Structures are given as structure tokens and as C-alpha cells.
Amino acid sequence: MNNNFNSSSGNNPNSRPxxxxxxxxxxxxxxxxxxxxxxxxIDNEIEQMLPASPTNNSLVDNQNDRGPRNRLASIVTLVxxxxxxxxxxxxxxxxxxxxxxxxxxxxxxxxxxxxxxxxKTLIPPVWRNLIIACFxxxxxIVGLLMLSGANQQPGSRNIQINWDAIGAVGELIGxxxxxxxxxIAVYVAWRxxxxxxxxxxxxxxxTQQQTIDAYFQGxxxxxMDEKGFLEDWPQERAIAEGRTAAIxxxxxxxxxxxxxxxxxxxxxxxxxxxxxLLGRPxxxxxGGYAEDREHxxxxxxxxxxxxxxxxTKTDLRWTDLSDANLVxxxxxxxxxxxxxxxxxxxxxxxxxxxxxxxxxxxxxTAENATPRSRTHVxxxxxxxxxxxxxxxxxxxxxKRLSDEQRYYFCAxxxxxxxxxxxxxxxxxxxKLGS
Length: 434
Known about the structure:
- By secondary structure, the protein is an all-alpha fold.
- Helices cover 48% and strands 1% of the residues.
- The protein has a domain at 56-195.
- Helix 2 (36-49) crosses helix 7 (163-223), helix 4 crosses helix 5 (93-122) and helix 7 packs parallel to helix 9.
- The longest helix has 61 residues, at 163-223.
């Protein structure tokens, strides 16, 4: 039997703990990667997060596909430019305008395939309309200034360019350009910060998952012998509880939920029936270990590890949280289907919007069940002292609440919490008296 988390990997390299997934199937826990494998794994994860940038080859291929049309557009553009110059030379406004429009349309059609890719890659969506609007305003101002002197004097040229006004606009554009460059620099720095933050969060998630996987493997090796049977001595149970208490405080809510699902499905937090001489677990005759709620001993006792824990919107289906201390715990929006909360301390906790279908908060009947007590022994036949402590719990918006659950909550949650129970507590006595 091994007394540490790492020594057993050499003895039994093929042993892997299993964890129930959200669809109920058993999944093997991936062994922890070390050294170069860890770095390669993290690099691959980061590369998957980054968007694939368009390559030059893709742009060239795109242009090659449109070769004949581009050649025709080039000829049209050159002819339009020549006609525009001719219109300016002979003072023909219609010819100049028409040629300019044709040249612009043909040029836009040529550059649009490549520009579209560059535009989508480099310019974020929130900035695209702003950039187009700025160019439109500048072009409109320049055009109005150029045409402001048209047809003012008989016999003069139709197009008279006010170079002083154009110069003033140029200075204004230069000043605005400097401001725009500063804004772009700030935006680029902000984008770099956002990307760096996202990569850091993703890397922290990868590191957390590797830590949890190592914990799964270590606890499994610690609690089982070489043949795969449960063999936990008092010191090993103490070490397992210490490891659990340390890791459960260092992970986020989703990490806590994974640990609780693993411990529940592996029955490490379930009281196991044991013989009175050596304390060894007893089989139930169906291939598992017998459960003994009255006198059984857990491999890991959660105790106060989850007091004040934030488990918002996590998956806690089929978890065994009996006898745990969840004082002021946040279980808002949790999936608590078939979870066991018997003798759990939920004082001033929150179950806002949680799914309570099939959740067990007591044994026996709702009328006879009472909350746990420090001085009385629980009776799992009648339900006396087997219930959860639900005083001042927030039940607002809980889903799929059964009639027995409503009766127990209304009877023992107190006057303040009775107002939050869906469906009300009419006709149900307040046994707590406050």
C-alpha cells in the first residue's frame, strides 16, 4: 500500500480512476503530463485559441481565380483614367465625372477580394463602420470645397479648385491623423492585453485540470491496494482529507464540482459499513461496498471544506453532500438532481434557481423528519434528526420542487425563508418557531 500520491504510478501504470461525465458515462481520467509533454500540450492549446491568419498564398490563389476578369478591369481602369484626364483638359465636367466614377468602380472591384480578407482580419467589427464614416465625411468635405466655386462667373471654367481651403483641410486631416494614430496605438495595446489575459485564463484552466487529474490519481492510489480493493487506514484517510481540503480551496467553482462528482461516484464520501475488528469495508453482495448511514465511516469526510463555497451554476447531480457543512454556500442555478443533502448544514445558503428534482434532504416522511442535532442520534427509519438544516435559506425560483420537499422546507426554514418558497407555505406549520 502506498502512502503518497506519486510512488504508486510505477507499481500500477495502467490504473486510472473513473469519473462520471454529464451524460452518465464513465470516463477515464487522463494521466498527468510532465516535462516537455506539458509544455507541448499547453502550446497546442494556445495555438488552437488563436485565429488562423490568412496566408499570402490564399490571397494569390484568390486573385488567380479571377485572372481574366481582373485583366479586363485593369484595361477599363486605365481607359477611364485617360478619359478623366482628357475631360479635365477640355473642361468637360460630364466626361470627367463619368470617367472618375468608372475608374473608381473598376479599381474597387479589382481590390475587393483581397481587401475583404485584410479588412476582416485586421479591422474589428466595431471599428469598421466608424472608419468608413470618417472617410466618407472627409471625401464629402473635399468634394464640396472643390465644387464650391463652380458656375460662379460666366465664361469661366466650371471647376475651380479653392487651394487655400484644400490646404486647410489637409492640415485638419493631418491633425486628425495624429489623433487617429494615437487612438490606434491605444487600441492595439488594449487588444494585446485582452489576448494576453485570455491566454492566461486558458493556461490557468489547463493547469487546474492537470492538478485535479493528479489529485484523482493520487487519491485512488492512496485508498486502494494493488488488487484494486478499498483499503484505507486511519492515517491514509487523514492524508486524503488533507489533500482534498487543500485542493478544494485552490480551484474555482467548476473545479470543486468535478472533485465532488468524483468523490461521490467513487463512494469515497459515502459512509461504508465496516467490520468491528479491523475496520475493513464490507461488501454488499452485489459487487459493491455496503452503505451504513448510522455507523459507517467515510474515506473522506468533507466537514467544513465547502463552508461559504461558491458553486454557482455547476453540475452536482448525484453527488453525496450528506453531513457536510455548507453554511452560507452559494448554490444558485446548480443542477442538484438526485443530490443527497441529508444532515447537511445549509444555514443561510442560497438555492436560487436550483433544480431540486429528486434531491434528498431527509429520510423517512416529511411530517416526521427533523433537522440534524448535535445531541440526538439520527433515526433513518422515522427520519428524526436526519434532515438538513435549512434555516434562512433562499429558495427563490427553485425548480421541480416536490410536495414533500416543500413541506419540509416550510416547516423548518423559518419565517424569513418561507416567503421565498415557490407555491407558498399555506397550511404548513412553522415548526422552527421563528
